[in-house]
Amino acid sequence: MINSHPQTDFAHPEEINTFLSAHPEISLFEIFLVDPNGVLRGKWLKREEVAAIYQEGRPLPASIHSLNTLGEDVVETGLIWDVADCDCRAYPIANSIRIQPWRSLPTASIQIMMHPTEGMPAYSGDPRGVLLNLLQRLAIDDLIPDIAIEYEFYIIDPTKKLASQKGTPFYAPLDELNQVYDLNGINNNEKFFTDIYRSCEEQRLPVRTAISEYGPGQLEITLEHQANALLAVDQAIALKHLIKQVARKYNYLATFMAKPFSELSGSGMHQHISLVDTHHQNLFASERPSGSELMHHAIAGILQHAQECVAIFCPTGNSYKRFQSLSYAPTHNNWGVNNRTVSVRIPTGSSQSRHLEHRICGADANPYITLAATLACMYQGIQLKLQLPPEQKGNAYDDASCPTLSFQWQEALDHFSKSTLLESMLGESFHSIYHKIKTQECKSYNSQVTQLDHGWYFNI
Length: 460
Prior knowledge:
The chain is of the alpha+beta class. It is built from 13 helices and 15 strands. A hairpin with a 5-residue loop joins strand 9 (207-212) and strand 10 (218-223).
């Protein structure tokens, strides 16, 4: 029996015993891990089964980290027939038990993760393990990321259809007349949002701001920042799952698709990042609005390697449709202070709150590997003392001199495959697995004949 590892945060068996004693009403447990696509995959267990996974782990096939977004095996990953689709062991993450108050049957969830040795070869494709390993590398230099995640998403009314200008019907957003920052969008659905906040309290999720975003029915919810990057991302995963499930309770749909509507704004996932030392002092703090010299090096690293990371920040074919001029999605490789047209924004605030906001990722991205990739670039910039290019002033969309990023899926995958930085910092195995999954998905996506093809070209 091995249920711990010096480099992981697996739970002690006493944790489940304490929980079961305190909650005799819980009869069902949802155990899940997060695959490279950001999809939650797992099982339901009865109460009498759950204690065993804290002692012995839970066997799951290696192929669970070989799947594409649709749940199809990607043989090229080497995690299926090459290893006889062997079982690998996953263990619960400490303090990850969360009651699910929206369930009709009393249920709790438990997040699990592949074990670094017992979970091989699947551990090599585990995105949480990628971030864990990267954080340990930063810790050697006493660099601790302080993180907050923002999600944008749409709440959809599945009883209504919305005809696009191309003639293709879509589900309609809730509150179609809602305006950006309009309180009516929240007030008109007070019961739903109250349930969201109560469920977050029940699940110990430090949710802060909820606002109406640019699109009708589009919302943004912010999590509180904290100097525990793994926990911050675990909470972001839990929040996304919670929003989807509470929406279902009200017969709504919640979508984190990057560009669900052609005519409406896309949904991003913004990463707010600073680095603190072992005394929790902000290393980006400065009286200068642009932050400290260390912060400049970190942002320079992000910009230098941004193109290599696009395939991670934009993991689906739909992701790339979000990047349009004047869309609040950045199209240029730049930075600026208090400027929402750039890729890396430095928000205003006190000198001690100085941090960067990374704005490229779609809401469909996997936050474990997007954060790992961003931190890897920041670390490289700090190590090499890279220098920042000039700050972007004003509207970057109208600046012809500003360097652009390529938002074509296959080009992004080509840049990713050639990145020695990401191969080194994310791990050679994960780098290969992710590339194989997304290359297969890209080819399949591009080969589909859609309703739009028929509408535009059928009568040629």
